[in-house]
Amino acid sequence: MKNIPEIPGCINCISNFKSVFKNLSEDEINKLSFDKGCDQYKRGTIIYNEGSRMTGCYCVNDGIIKLYKTGVEGKEQIIRFAKKGDIIGFRSVLSNEAACTSAKVIDDAMLCFIPSVTFFELVENNAKFSMELMQMTCRELGEANSYITDIAQKTVRERLAEILIHLKNDFGLDNEGVLQISLTREELANIVGTATESVIRLLSEFKSDALIDLNGRKIKLLNIPKLIKTGNIYE
Questions:
Q1: What is the CATH number of the domain that holds 211?
Q2: Same domain, 169 and 203
C-alpha cells in the first residue's frame, strides 16, 4: 500500500462513471471528498479478508479488484470483479456483519476508503442515494441467482463461453479484440467453478474452433456470435 500525495476529488469519478454517488448534493460530495482517504495498491495486495470487521467501504478509483470466497482446502470461488466507479464492502458495513468475501487487487489499483460514519450519514440523509444502493444490491443478488442456475444446469464449456462474454461486456476489448482484463488460468477456473486443467483444455478447444486466440494471459475474441451461442446466452 502506498499513500498518495494528493487525494483525487470525488466529483471526477461521479462525472466519468455510472457512480452510485451520482445523486449526492454538492455539499455531500465535498464532505465525502474531505472524509475519505485514498491509497495505491499493487497487484496481489489483499484489501480485506473474509471474516474481517469492516470500518468502512471502498470506492475503486482505478484498477481491478476480485471479490472471492474461500472454500474447501483453500480453493477460491470468484464472486465478481470491481472496476472504476464500483464500491466494495458496503453490504457488510450496512449489515454490521463481518465481510462475507475477500478482496484482492489483480490490476494495480487506487482505492478510496469511506468511513462507516460518513457512509451512514449519506444513507440516512439522501433517499436517492439509498435507493441507488438498494437497486445495486438487487442487481448483484440477481447475478448471484443466475450464477447458481448456471452452475446447476450448464456444462463447463457453456459456462466458460458465457464468462468470456461477461468479461467483454464488463471490461471491453482493445482495438485488436483482446479482453481488457488479464486473468490467470486458475482465476478463470475459479470464476467458472471448475478445475484449472479443465479451463486449459477448453481454452485450447476454443482456439482450435477459431472462437478465441491466446497469447499468455491475453485472450482475443475472434467469433463473439459463436461464443454467445456456445454459452447459450440470451442477451
A1: 1.10.10.10
A2: yes
What are the pLDDT digits (tens) for 80-94? Answer: 999 988 999 999 999
Total of domains in the chain:
2
CB 172 within 8 A of CB 180: yes
* Domain final position from 134, 166, 200: 134
How does pLDDT run across 176-207, given as a tens digit for each residue?
A: 999 999 999 999 999 998 999 999 999 999 99
Local structure of 127: helix, strand or coil: helix
Residue 143 lies in a domain: no
Which among 61, 161, 165 is positioned nearest to 114, based on CA atoms? Answer: 61
Boundaries of domain holding 165: 151-230
CA 207 to chain centre: 26
Beta strands in 71-207 (DSSP E): 76-82, 87-88, 102-115
Sign of the Cα pseudo-torsion (5, 104, 97, 126, in order): positive
On whether the pTM is more than 0.90, the answer is: no
Grid cell digits, residue 110: 487506487
